[in-house]
Amino acid sequence: MAIALTTLLEEAERFLGAARIADYCPNGLQVEGRPQVRRIVSGVTASQALLDAAVEADADVVLVHHGYFWKGENPCVVGMKQRRLKTLLNNDISLLAYHLPLDVHPQVGNNVQLAAQLDITVEGPLDPENMKVVGLIGSLDEPMTARDFARRVQEVLGREPLLIEGSQMIRRVGWCTGGGQGYIDQAIAAGVDLYLTGEASEQTVHSARENDVSFIAAGHHATERYGVQALGDYLAKRFALEHLFIDCPNPV
């Protein structure tokens, strides 16, 4: 079955509420391809590897979390950007990208989806006083050591995380997928035993150690694989389309 690209886009916009969220890039249709859609390929980032795989899979739409046209980037269509856009345009493939709307969504968002993968019960926002902080806070069914939780993360995500181990058993967890290491202070203020994100900065380690809070950096890419899959599944089911998630591994 095929549907109009405009219909797919309208439903994605409605479902995610993307127009209400200020962001660092345009959300939604970033590159327009053929007018009819029957197959969606999703991935974390619209890299050349993903685009080449989408061409091989005969995709009509590439759906990603990390798209193009970020604030402050060079707007010139040269080099890597030219090659990527040329691949999409030459093959008449549309690019749909959702950044913050796909982090915060209560059903298919990266943060709630990661919680489901790691068996964390979501309790609410990491910082209720500042909704620009997109992280969440939750709890484990049973307390465990930081090392045991890190092993769970490794088993689920398929990569060894960076662990800074505190002295407390892990009961309350704060997390923000991707590059959310800057929210560790909000997590500490919220009284978590462990804060998890994708990346680490030099100062993140000191904050964790000096506040005796465990910290895990599990990979920007690895922590953000699940939201775009869930959104692709939702759209495919809604319109009886084909959906294929393609993981292009990234060590960061």
TrEMBL record:
PANTHER family membership: GTP CYCLOHYDROLASE 1 TYPE 2 HOMOLOG, NGG1 INTERACTING FACTOR 3
Organism, scientific name: Pseudomonas turukhanskensis
Record GO terms (molecular function): metal ion binding
Alphabetic keyword roster: Metal-binding
Keyword Transcription: no
Taxonomic lineage from the root: Bacteria, Pseudomonadati, Pseudomonadota, Gammaproteobacteria, Pseudomonadales
InterPro entries cross-referenced by the UniProt entry: DUF34/NIF3, DUF34/NIF3_sf
Keyword field contains Oxidoreductase: no
GO terms for cellular component: cytoplasm
Origin superkingdom: Bacteria
Name listed for the protein in its UniProt record: GTP cyclohydrolase 1 type 2 homolog
Residues that coordinate or bind a divalent metal cation: H65, H66, D103, H220, E224
Family under the similarity heading: Belongs to the GTP cyclohydrolase I type 2/NIF3 family.
